[in-house]
Design brief:
Helix content: 40-55%
Low-confidence stretches: none
Oligomer: single chain
Radius of gyration: 24 Å
Number of strands: 0
Structural class: mainly alpha
Number of helices: 2
Shape: elongated
Largest sheet: none
Distance between the termini: 39 Å
Order of helices and strands: HH
Mean pLDDT: 76
């Protein structure tokens, strides 16, 4: 890739980042991955199945909300080993 094309791409990416930072944030929550769509509630014609389905829906909501609120710690790279001379 020619140098001028690389510079233009880098400048374009930088402008896109600044546009994103200038937009007002809707909320300060951190989103990791896509959000799950709301699961429609169905009547399964059995009380035990309905209870199990409600528990599963609740767990899915809990997991999806907890993944958006936690912040991943950046991992530090191990120190670079010094080369041995033979």
């Amino acid at each position: 890739m020619p140098r001028t094309t690389q510079l233009q791409e880098r400048q374009r990416r930088r402008e896109e980042r600044t546009k994103l930072t200038l937009l007002p944030a809707a909320s300060e929550e951190i989103v990791i991955g896509p959000k799950l769509p709301e699961i429609p509630k169905l009547d399964l014609a059995d009380d035990s199945l309905n209870i199990s389905a409600d528990l599963i829906r609740g767990k899915l909501k809990e997991v999806s909300t907890s993944s958006t609120l936690t912040r991943a710690e950046p991992t530090t790279a191990p120190p670079v080993k010094q080369r041995r001379r033979i």
